[in-house]
Design a protein that fits this description.
The protein has one helix at 2-18; strands spanning 24-27, 31-32, 36-37, 39-43, 48-52, 55-56, 60-62, 67-71, 74-75, 79-82, 86-90, 93-95, 99-102, 106-110, 112-114, 118-121, 127-130, 133-134, 138-141, 153-154, 158-160. It is mainly beta. Strands 1-4-7-10-13-16-19-21 form an 8-stranded parallel β-sheet, with no helix packed on it.
Length: 165
């Protein structure tokens, strides 16, 4: 009996130690200041999220008709939006991976450091892309308006509509 109990305890401990930790997804529909989020952040459809100095350990996903306004933020993962109303990221913000914005309204990326690619595809609002540092490619395709801006340092290629900004 003691051996069986000992084996069962070892199996339980091994299971607990090898179970991966899952970070939660936090919904933002208001204002967040200098806080750290251990996981992903989601802006729900139709909502507005304002981030000021916020640190996100995961990804940020912006929902349909939602607005994200980010100033001085750090996103360890990627920023993604499809059919968003508006995206604004400024003031020495950082994104560790890619920025992928598709079929959205107005987009402003100003003084952002991006560890991967910036992809702006089929957006219908004004696009301002200025003073950014992009470690990958800056890709703009099928946007209704040509992106404006300048002073972007891109390690990869500036492609299609982004060949100039």
């Amino acid at each position: 009996m003691t051996t069986a109990l000992h084996v069962a305890s070892l199996l339980l401990c091994a299971t607990l130690l090898t179970t991966p930790a899952h970070a939660d997804t936090v919904d933002c529909s208001g204002r967040m200041g200098h806080v750290s989020i251990d996981g992903d952040l989601r802006v729900p459809s139709g909502k507005t999220c304002t981030l000021d100095g916020t640190r996100i350990e995961g990804n940020v996903v912006v929902g349909r008709a939602a607005t994200l306004s980010a100033r001085g933020v750090r996103i360890e993962g990627k920023l993604q939006a499809e059919d968003a109303r508006q995206i604004s990221m400024v003031a020495s913000s950082r994104v560790g991976d890619n920025i992928q914005l598709e079929r959205s309204g107005a987009v402003r990326l100003d003084s952002v450091t991006v560890g991967g690619d910036v992809q702006l595809f089929a957006n219908h609002g004004a696009l301002r892309i200025a003073h950014n540092r992009v470690d990958g490619n800056l890709q703009c395709k099928s946007n209704q308006r040509r992106p404006t801006g300048g002073g972007n340092r891109v390690r990869g290629n500036k492609e299609d509509q982004c060949a100039r900004p």
